Amino acid sequence: MMHEMSDSRDDMMETEINNHAIVVTNDVAHNNKDRQKIFGADNADPSDAGICGSLMTGLSWFLVGITLPFSLFVCFKVVQEYERAVIFRLGRLVSGGAKGPGIFFILPCMDSYVCVDLRTRTYDVPPQEVLTKDSVTVSVDAVVYYRVSNATISVANVANAHHSTKLLAQTTLRNVMGTRPLHEILSEREAISNTMQLALDEATEDWGIKVERVEIKDVRLPVQLQRAMAAEAEATREARAKVIAAEGEHKASRALREASEVISDSPAALQLRYLQVRNWK
């Protein structure tokens, strides 16, 4: 029985070791994939710091050791649940990807870090003057909902990911609206929003940005065009009213003709109708 318990413990330990190895392998693969997406990282070796870098690293560890425990206040940093820290050591990205949430360690005089907020942001696109496909000038504004999906790429690949996304949203709004006629812009806002969302999401993937939603807020027409459309709608309503009135007159005349035919066939009915009309007067 003791031998069976020992075998079961060995199996459990082996399973835990295998699971840990799988997790480490997945983390390494994910980090390598992130480095492949970083511009200029194909030929860079993160472990090649050089002799000067090694000396500075050793000196930093020495300073941390002789200034304990005061150095701990400088070495340990904290990021919130919705934040990630991208660490650079001597200008190179530290292996392991972005750190957080919680506590992480940095070397003084060696490491610098950038804190990235992962929460969803909203951008109110200002009104854009757009020339539609049928040569009508309209003013369109929208709202873009986006977030940082990869903190490392958003820091390493673009100088200002948020500002770049906002500028791209403005140009994409003008480009998409310029390919649609006015009646589609007024009636197919949801389809236009989906097209914009897909175009923005594809363009910002290399910046570590995920565009979650795009909504068209308002389409403002020129005053002259509004008046012309109002006059056209009023003329359409008047024409419809005249058609309805003509159809009513036609039905009434047909009913009178049928009534006259019935009365002409019965002299008594004609006399009764005459007396009824006199009573009304």
List strands and helices in order, with pairings.
Blueprint: H1 2-37, H2 50-66, H3 72-75, E1 76-79, E2 83-89, E3 92-93, E4 102-105, E5 111-117, E6 121-131, E7 137-148, H4 151-156, H5 161-178, H6 182-187, H7 189-203, E8 209-220, H8 223-264, H9 267-280
Antiparallel strand pairs: 1-4, 2-3, 2-5, 6-7, 7-8
Helix pairs in contact: 5-7
Description:
By secondary structure, the protein is an alpha+beta fold. The chain folds into three domains: 52-117, no CATH class; 120-221, Band 7 domain (Tetrahydropterin Synthase, Chain A); 241-279. The protein has helices spanning 2-37, 50-66, 72-75, 151-156, 161-178, 182-187, 189-203, 223-264, 267-280; strands at 76-79, 83-89, 92-93, 102-105, 111-117, 121-131, 137-148, 209-220. The strands form three sheets. Strands 3-2-5 form a three-stranded antiparallel beta sheet. It has a three-stranded antiparallel beta sheet with strand order 6-7-8, with helices on one face. β6 and β7 form a beta hairpin. α5 crosses α7 (189-203). The chain is rod-shaped, with a radius of gyration of 38 Å.
